[in-house]
Known about the structure:
Blueprint: E1 2-5, E2 17-23, H1 33-39, H2 45-53, E3 60-66, E4 69-83, E5 86-98, H3 107-121, E6 126-129, H4 134-137, E7 143-155, E8 162-164, E9 193-197, H5 203-213, E10 220-222, H6 226-238, E11 242-248, E12 251-259, E13 265-271, H7 276-293, E14 301-304, E15 313-322, H8 325-331, E16 340-347, E17 357-362, E18 370-373, E19 379-382, H9 383-390, H10 396-400, E20 406-407, H11 409-417, E21 424-425
Parallel strand pairs: 1-2, 5-6, 10-21, 13-14, 16-19
Antiparallel strand pairs: 2-3, 3-4, 4-5, 4-10, 6-15, 7-8, 7-14, 7-15, 9-11, 11-12, 12-13, 16-17, 17-18, 19-20
Helix pairs in contact: 5-6
Amino acid sequence: MRRLLYPDERENERGRAVMILRKLEQEEHGKTRALWEEIFSTDTKAFLDYYYYIKARDNQIWVIEEDEQICSMLQLNPYTVRVESKEFPSAYIIAVATKEAYRGRGYMGALLRRTLEEMYSRKMPFTFLMPAAEAIYTPYDFRFIYTQDIGELVSSGKGRELAWKEGKDTDTVLPSAADAAGAPVEAAARGNLTFSDAGLWDAEMIAEFFEKYFAGRYQVCTVRNAAYWRTMILEQGSERGGMRLIQENGDLKGIYAYGREEELEIREPFLLDGYKGAFLKSVSELSQGVAESSQDKEKSVPVYACPPGCAAEKKPLIMARIVCLPELLAAMRAPEDEEVSCSFAVIDPLLTKNSRVWKVESAFGETALHVRETEDSEGVLPVAELTEVLFGRISPEEAAEREGVILSERLVEELNKITKLTRTWFNEVV
């Protein structure tokens, strides 16, 4: 008979296996690399060298030990996330793995419950992950909050130049990227265009570029400061790629990430208006270099998180789980011309401190939501359905049709007034 223990517990009774659930010390993180290599065998040595040198330096790794070895793990990579105008700590859940001989014993659930409690103590509004399969995480109230647009570049028929699949071309209109004063950037005639890989010293410039032109497009995203972009440059380097800069007369006009471990792939092009043709030219040059070495010249190039209007596929990518509900609600907004006042009971089987009756209010002339506990409830929302409502994945009316949800007509009306977090942007891989 086995019993799960925490580090401060001891088990001396004969015939009972000792299993310890604990957070590793920083100097112990390298002990989990063997388990990673065993379970995620397709990851390259170069990537793991990067990961355990850069990412594992400041993350948390929680494990279950049995038979004097690590048999299950879960890693939390720290990110700062922005929800509307507020910034919070958050964690990306990754490397959830259990040795085959120890599966079916509830170790993953135990690790998730323990780490969720730890994240709640830090008042994280939510945690997020990229699931291997949706069904693994839905029992723990994770739900999709972000769908990624995926495009494809194919031969244009003009030499080795690339174009968007399905007839999409450089005339596809992007939402206007505005300067600090709000004026749209003009699509001027091309001057002296240069394409080059970013060095670590370019991280400040990239951060300023993203913050000035693109950060305002999203209600929820990771905070992309210079440290973020330095890590991104190193991460892409571990995948035999880099961060590509598109410059005109020395001024930054676009960026994108690329990797080429097996074949060329592109991620997150951020382009000013009028520079998508320059992007296609830049990728065409990269593609030619790959084709000359290993990649089929006729092979298409996938573009993950592609520009609006260029997607050939939309893929649900990132799931999130509400952690500290009042922090998330208090970061959200309502229109200035609306008055919000409602209360509802939340059912959270894992984080019971969220299982309260919450009062949410916003007065005319303000956008902030004020959150407090109350006693009178107008309805009941399980935390999973509440996640989908707040992130705009389902409407309150749709939620009301779900099992376990009770919403009065007035509560539905009030919930509809809250500005939903539909403009999310999460393409983090690790």
